[in-house]
Amino acid sequence: MKRSLQRINEQYIATETDPWGIDWRGTMAIRNRFYERMVAEAIGGLEPRPAELRILDVGCGSGLLSEQLRSSISEGNTIDRYLAVDVSESAIARARSLHPQSVIEYRVIDEDLTELSGEEFDLILGFEFLPYHSHEERCALFHQLKRFCHDGTRLVLSSNVRFGESDDVYVAVDQLAAEMTPCFDCLLTRDLFLSTYIDKFECHLLTWQHQRLVGGLVRWLLARRTPPACACRVVQSLAGPRWPRHRNRTFILK
Ligand SMILES: C[S@@+](CC[C@H](N)C(=O)[O-])C[C@H]1O[C@@H](n2cnc3c(N)ncnc32)[C@H](O)[C@@H]1O
User: How far is the CA of 129 from the centre of ligand 1 (A)?
Assistant: First the structure.
């Protein structure tokens, strides 16, 4: 893995939930809602639709997004198994302590996922773990993920992407597409202009919630699990043109 596992563990230990403030509302709620919709779209495309879904969630972190997804998926579907894995034992310990009653099976896993060999899933989810890996590692991971698929399996994967060179946070978009191609057909991609905006917009929101004039409105906004559609549109239209070369891209693959 490109990033140090020790450092990832330390980052989880140093924060109350996770290093990305994924429990924050506002822009993260927009992101999570966007993923919910992408997952619903992928499930809608399952042909035939399994009576009970077997789901693998790779790089689940502290499980905040996983819990939200499990709950929204279970509204129209029966889940046989929801397995959420992460390379970081601190992340998994955090997930278990944050969600003690959870029906999600949280598990620490080696980064190459070979421990799961022989397992099969109907839906594979992976949000923002791809940039942790080098080109070679991602190619190997795609081949490994392919082994968990049957003919109808759908994958929903997201990554920070950049129209240019890869760096530690962003993966060059052409490179990522080329890495997936030998293993999967891409059915759909959708972009969210969000990741570079989080620090700026979210930090402002968190500060503004204590202000006398706008505090009430901001607190109401932050408390909403599902952000208003207009808030999503405003964030998209502000962030997109400012960072035209940086996006968060979600792929539905089969
Ligand atoms: C940025 S966090 C995203 C957490 C969560 N998916 C979300 O979007 O809210 C990425 C997580 O992926 C984990 N990770 C990276 N590579 C992985 C791999 N090959 N297998 C399992 N977990 C991995 C990291 O430890 C980290 O917790």
Answer: 4
